[in-house]
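Bench notes, afternoon.
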Amino acid sequence: MAFYYTILKLSPNSFTNDVLSVGILAFNDEKSWLKISENKKNIIKKLVENDSLVDFFLKRINSFHKNIVANSYCPKGFFKYEDFKFSSQYFEYLNRYSNGFIRYSTPVKIEDELNDDKFLRLYYSLIEGESTLERKENSDK
């Protein structure tokens, strides 16, 4: 089954259009994966005036993802997560209209099955860099 992925980016200065890729979200009709880089998060914190905003936004993204996966409700109960499904159209919309602190890449479709191992390889190749994965695999041996 095909899947899509989008890269989560934070923009420390929206006037210069600078962005740093901090994480990746992959999804298909049945499952979704989210991983945010601690290394990139720490870098972006050094580039913004209020580093607590970085934690706030990334926690909100993580919480939103967990609530959708669990098909649960928002703490205030105003929005039913069970009615929401990740879709390429949703992230195309976010890519087009999110031009503030949080940004999303255009979703990319991959015609392959996705599992936890493949997702981690995708994360390391696009967010952390291949050499990080090689070091991690060597340290696990």
